[in-house]
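In this section we walk through a basic example: taking a raw amino acid sequence and producing a predicted 3D structure, encoded as discrete structure tokens. The instruction is simple. Fold the sequence below.
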Amino acid sequence: SAEALAALAPVAVAYEPAADADQCAFDATESGDGYTRAAAQGLANVLRQDAACADLIEARERETRTPFTHVVRSRPDALWYLPAAPACAWPARGWRFHDWAFLFSR
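The resulting token sequence is shown next.
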């Protein structure tokens, strides 16, 4: 929402159209471990979005001539009940909590 963007004050925002199911031509059928076409498409979507985010991060680093030391990736549907600790309080090598939030060192 516009309010969320205003509160976060991002330096870059990128929107992309919803992917058409036919754009992801996976031949993944149901198997014993529950792997389905939907799961393959979901993984491809996450990887594509992560790559686009990395491009925005690198563009900002070039623009400001300042590299980031860490990058936080959080699921868009994750709810943070408290403010995140400052970066200096997080492990230098990185951190993850399930698939909800990640801290990557650069």
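Looking at the output, two observations stand out. Helices lie at 2-8, 37-64. The mean pLDDT is 78. In the next section we compare this with other chains.
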